[in-house]
Write a structure and sequence with these properties.
heterodimer, A: 215 residues, alpha/beta, Rossmann fold, globular, B: 690 residues, mainly alpha, Glutathione S-transferase Yfyf (Class Pi), Chain A, domain 2, elongated, disordered N terminus
Chain lengths: 215, 690
């Protein structure tokens, strides 16, 4: 749910993917910049917050880890409902995990449509010699379904930061587009709000800027 | 608001996966009406809009039905309401309550209404408490804030209450959400709240939600118009049937014997059970958060490192199964409906609540496949054919004694483990000690082999020789003097003879501590002196003897040499003179005292070689030195001492520079010390050898 209270965007990002593809490692690398789980200070790695500042906009990313086991697949909709973005992780050495990503994409597009920003991450690039999922295949598929493809390595800290940053930017664009669309409909409401949060409300000019940028 | 409605429909979709399939087909999700929106099991498979239409139609149809039917419908509704009250005190009677016996046949619509109104106006103790709390917390913000707050609360409660019978609970939930937003806007925009700080505004919103929900709790929680209660019973029965599921089945690593883990599990279970006793949605939510935090701690204890969702969800499922919380479904639905959406959708609380929903959904759809066991086994477990007794069973079901027994067993196991480890350590320590002993013995023997202990003749410190040579000159002079003074000695002959015995005994006594020095000096002095002496002693004979004896009183060395010289001269042979010290007169007191220490030290090979008398003592010394361990270093000193004897050079070690330096120390006592030290060290080594 992209809440915009006091100029802060709250984005919910859900991590999906088969077990053992490195979902938790990715988020730990991103939030804590640690790989070895022994050095991580957080008690739990299933729910993590990351504060960002993009183009002067304060963004709070809530990253939700999900259980990757096959038996919990059916619980996916409960996890990803009302999320702004999803990171679909697969292991480049494991063809099955890529097929799993495909099924997730289908499901997400079916249920959440274009509202959700998708990022497909081929993790474990440090094991390049054991690669089983070709880069071209993954990239072609990603562009076909409107997702951004990234190659990452949580171990070597490659591509992780960029991936989350790009996703955040994309989510921001989507939200702002939506706001621009809804602006005429809920004018009364937004006007009333704007009166109060005038000091730290940087968002109203932003959508118009974004519109210009898009057109 | 189509988007909002859609979002809400997703929100309820979490309960849509009733069928035991692992995947959701699109057909399952779509609205039954075929409008293209997604449906929900709670809405009979319709989407929210179609369901509302459907319900309206139903209501109209029912209204057209006979009065008795309508009455009956209402009665059943009220009976449920009654049930709820009793349910709180006794859960087991639930089954009975649904029986028609308990249904009242009278028209309760009229009697129920005023009763409820009365309830609302009646002093609600919780609401009163909250009102007092409000005044104490936010009273400082002025009368206006307080008035506005209660005005909003009043309007909210009246509105909801009036709509309670006409609208399905979902619509009421929507209304509540709208009210939350409304109050949010009001707090953030109106003049009344201008002075209130941002944090307090948030708190006020929270408090508003709390207050209205506590006031309306009895109508909004598990409302009679829904089948929440049936769902509660279904899930309760389901969990009861699944009581045999343990941590192992769920692939989660909760160690069942650790006391700490068990305590944490109890804490988690208690927190989860506590959810039912809370009234405000946020309080229920905080119970869930506490429970989940305990679960995370449990996992930390069991595996260490950060806890990921892969481990967290199975553990939470396990906790839910073991806790079997009362009215679980009602609680979850209540929170979903009436908790402020913004809170539920974000933050830790939202995440944990989502996980709880997942756990419940998983339990509802649990199959043999999801536990990785064959269908037959699963069915056997479910029907009670197989019963499993785990540590948890004994801890949660059986008596306290059993529990203690388990704990004690675990304790004993730990103790025996420790004892074993101690014993092992002892063993290794003993082995180490033995090894060390062997090693030491080996090393000692190796060292002994490498450097065998040979008892060598005590070496003469260089300074003594120099001294001796210098003394030779002095002695010569003295001897000359003594010769010139012969007359004087002769005069004192009587006294000297008297002293002879005394001197001899004295000598014997004195020689022992400084034997080497004396001996060497003696031998040296003999050789040096002998040419001069020979004639003299031969000529002088006894008086000479007397002279030397009396001389001994003046100079020890001279006396000594004189004496031995006298002795050697007496049975004079050229050979004897060459190596005078080797064959001292066995009968002479000095000779006998010398023999004791001297004889074994003599290198035999030196003897037969014809040598110059002057070189021989040096050679002798050098030969000895070469063999002694201490002097091995002093090899380079060979050039310092020109030795005419070539065959000896190989053995000859010579004097080191240090060796030359030592004699420069004029202090004689120091030399004594050094010789004594070398002596004592050799004695020590020999004693060690023994």
């Amino acid at each position: 749910m992209a809440n915009n209270s006091g100029g802060i965007h709250n984005f919910k990002v859900v991590l999906l993917g088969e077990g053992c593809v490195g979902k938790t490692s990715l988020v730990l690398r991103y939030v804590e910049d640690k790989f070895n789980s022994n050095h991580v200070t957080t008690v739990q790695a299933s729910f993590l917050n990351k504060k960002l500042n993009i183009e002067g906009k304060r963004i709070n990313l809530a990253i939700w880890d999900t259980a990757g086991q096959e038996k919990f697949h059916a619980l996916g909709p409960i996890y990803y409902r009302s999320s702004n973005g999803a990171v679909l992780v697969y292991d480049i050495t494991d063809e099955d995990s890529f097929q799993k990503v495909k099924s997730w994409v289908k499901e997400l597009r079916k249920i959440l449509g274009a509202d959700i920003c998708l990022v497909i991450a081929g993790n474990k690039t440090d094991l390049e010699k054991n690669r089983h999922v070709s880069l071209e295949e993954a990239e072609t598929y990603s562009s076909k379904v409107g997702a951004i493809h990234f190659q990452t390595s949580a171990k070597l800290n490659k591509g992780v930061e960029e991936m989350f940053l790009t996703l955040t930017q994309k989510m921001l664009e989507t939200v702002q587009e939506k706001e621009a669309q809804n602006a005429p409909l809920s004018r009364q409401n937004s006007q009333r709000r704007n009166v109060v949060v005038v000091d730290d409300d940087q968002v109203p000019p932003a959508p118009t800027k974004q519109c210009c940028g898009n057109s | 608001m189509p988007i909002f409605a859609l979002q809400r429909s997703y929100k309820y979709m979490m309960y849509a996966t009733k069928q035991p399939s692992l995947r959701i087909n699109q057909a399952d999700l779509k609205c039954k009406n075929g409008c293209g929106y997604y449906g929900n099991a709670d809405w009979d498979g319709y989407c929210s809009k179609c369901y509302r239409n459907h319900m309206d139609q139903e209501r109209q149809r029912k209204a057209r039905q006979t009065h008795s039917d309508q009455a009956k419908h209402q009665v059943s509704g009220f009976s449920k309401f009654e049930e709820k009250k009793r349910q709180q005190t006794d859960k087991k009677n639930k089954y009975l309550k649904s029986l028609p016996v308990f249904r009242k046949t009278s028209n309760v619509k009229d009697s129920g209404r005023p009763e409820r109104h009365l309830d609302l106006r009646q002093a609600n103790p919780d609401a009163d408490k909250l009102m007092a709390e409000f005044i104490s917390l936010y009273g400082i913000w002025g009368e206006m804030v307080r008035k506005d707050f209660f005005k909003c609360v009043q309007s909210f409660t009246t509105k909801i209450y009036s709509e309670l019978d006409n609208k399905p609970i979902e619509d009421i939930a929507e209304m509540a959400q709208k009210y939350y937003n409304l109050y949010n806007n009001r707090v953030n925009s109106t003049q009344t709240y201008q002075e209130v700080t941002t944090e307090v505004r948030e708190e006020l919103l929270d408090f508003f939600e709390k207050y209205v929900m506590v006031s309306l709790y009895s109508w909004l929680f598990c409302p009679p118009s829904t089948n929440d209660e049936e769902k509660d019973l279904i899930i309760q029965e389901r969990i009861r049937k699944l009581s045999w599921v343990n941590a192992h089945h769920l692939d989660c690593c909760i160690s069942e014997t650790s006391i700490e883990v068990r305590d944490l599990v109890y804490t988690a279970i208690t927190d989860l059970l506590g959810m039912d006793s809370m009234k405000a949605p946020q309080e229920k939510l905080s119970c869930v958060v506490r429970c989940c935090r305990s679960v995370v701690e449990v996992l930390q204890h069991c595996q260490g490192g950060p806890v990921s969702a892969d481990e967290f969800l199975p553990a939470l499922i396990f906790i839910v199964l073991k806790a079997n919380p009362a009215r679980l479904k009602s609680n979850i639905l209540y929170v979903t409906r009436f908790c402020n959406d913004t809170r539920l959708m974000q933050g830790e609380a939202g995440y944990y609540f989502t996980n709880l929903c997942c756990a419940v959904s998983f339990i509802e759809n649990l199959t043999a496949e999801s536990l990785n066991m064959p269908q037959q086994e699963f069915e056997a477990y479910m029907s009670g054919e197989i019963t499993s007794v785990s540590a948890w069973e004994s801890a949660l079901v059986a008596c306290e004694g059993m529990h203690q027994l388990c704990e004690h067993l675990a304790l004993l196991k730990g103790l025996s483990d420790r004892t074993n480890s101690v014993q092992e350590n002892t063993k290794t320590l003993t082995e180490d000690i033995l090894k060390l002993k062997e090693e030491i013995t080996e090393k000692v023997t190796a060292v002994l082999e490498r450097t065998p202990l040979i008892i060598k003749p005590r070496k003469t410190p260089e300074d003594l020789k120099i001294e001796a040579s210098t003394q030779v000159a002095a002695i010569k002079i003295e001897v000359d003097e003594s010769q010139t003074q012969n007359n004087f000695y002769l005069q004192n002959l009587q006294i000297g003879q008297n002293n002879l015995d005394e001197t001899k005994t004295k000598l014997q006594l004195d020689i022992t501590p400084c034997i080497s020095e004396d001996k060497v000096k003696a031998s040296q002095s003999i050789e040096f002196l002998s040419p001069a002496f020979d004639a003299q002693s031969l000529d002088g004979l006894t008086p000479d003897d007397q002279n030397s004896l009396s001389l001994s009183k003046i100079n020890y060395d001279i006396d000594f040499s004189d004496l031995s010289g006298e002795n050697s001269v007496a049975e004079l042979t050229p050979e004897k003179r060459k190596s005078p010290s080797y064959t001292p007169d066995p009968f002479s007191p000095i000779g006998s005292s010398c023999t004791i220490t001297q004889v074994p030290l003599v290198p035999s090979q030196v003897e037969p070689k014809p040598k110059d008398d002057f070189v021989l003592p040096f050679l002798e010394d050098n030969a000895k030195k070469e063999e002694t361990l201490i002097d091995k270093k002093e090899d380079n000193a060979i050039t310092n001492l020109p030795s005419p004897i070539k065959p000896m050079t190989s053995q000859y070690s010579g004097f080191s520079k240090q060796g030359w330096q030592i004699p420069s120390i004029p202090c004689i006592t120091g030399d004594f010390v050094s010789t004594n030290a070398s002596q004592s060290s050799s004695q020590q080594s020999s004693s060690q050898d023994n």
